[in-house]
Specification:
The chain is an all-alpha fold. The protein has two helices and no strands. It has one domain. Helix 1 runs antiparallel to helix 2.
Length: 123
């Protein structure tokens, strides 16, 4: 074998090794980039899910607060209506008692006008 042939074989082996090494390095870099992109997408999705969960919790808390406020307002309205009904019945009873006393005095027309005005004013 001549020295030229040996040098050609060595050169070819070195070039082939360099090409294979370059391909391995490129494949490794592509793999690392793909892994980084996948991790970044996973982190972005996780952050988006956390944000959606936080927004959902905030909406749920708001809805619960609104429901509690509506229930409290309804309870207050019912209590006020009950108090007004009690006051109305007391006033009507008082007016009827006064009317029955005044009927015997001959002033029945005045009392009937007072009862109708009182009923409209309360209700």
């Amino acid at each position: 074998m001549t020295i030229t042939l040996v040098l050609k074989i060595i050169t070819t082996a070195i070039v082939a090794t360099a090409i294979v090494t370059a391909i391995i390095v490129i494949v490794f870099i592509v793999f690392v980039v793909i892994v980084i992109v996948v991790v970044a997408v996973a982190v972005a999705v996780a952050v988006a899910v956390i944000v959606v969960v936080i927004v959902a919790v905030a909406v749920a808390v708001t809805v619960i607060v609104i429901i509690i406020v509506i229930i409290v307002v309804l309870i207050v309205v019912v209590i006020i209506v009950i108090i007004l009904l009690i006051v109305d019945s007391i006033l009507v009873t008082t007016i009827i008692v006064k009317a029955s006393k005044l009927i015997f005095n001959g002033t029945i027309h005045v009392i009937l006008i007072r009862v109708s005005v009182s009923r409209e004013g309360i209700t």
